[in-house]
Task: structure prediction
Amino acid sequence: MENYADILFINEVRTLQELDGTAEKYDQFYPQRTKALLDDADRQFIESRESFYIASVSSTGWPYVQHRGGPKGFLKLIDDNKLGFVDYPGNRQFITMGHAAHEDRVALFLMDYERRARLKLLGRLTMQHAKDADTNLCEKLSTPGQPRVDRIATIDIVAIDWNCPKYIPQWYTEQTVQKLIEKQVKPLQDENERLKSLLEKFNGT
Result:
């Protein structure tokens, strides 16, 4: 993979960093963060996502950000630095797919609001209709509980960067909240039953 800063810190960005006094820090910091391959922590984070944001650019230069969601694990690592996912029926505007046909470069934001973490990815996107895709790839990208598959997408990862948790709100999914409630309530219910049993024995004597 390439260095994230080498791609995004263009001259105009570098000028602003130099004026701000952060250019030297980034010069020292980012070379150490460059990876040849995704590591286990990257993989686990990616494949535990239930949604992500993907940005593409049109032939007229306008950017577009789209949300993609599905069952946990629908975003899969299918090769050393290659992601894939199945695209489900939506509003059928085909904006991201159309952009990728002209310009395949995309940026992804993978968010974990519960742990206040985010992973940024740069890559090259290929999308095709499911009926035209390789059957083995479709099977590989399938996830239990998924809706009907419309399209197949693969992304060759070019660079990655982990962002700091600053300003990320801490949100919890309904499932997580339910588990926390059950974890707290179950002991109280058990204690309540124990006390009721003792009270019944006491009243019976």
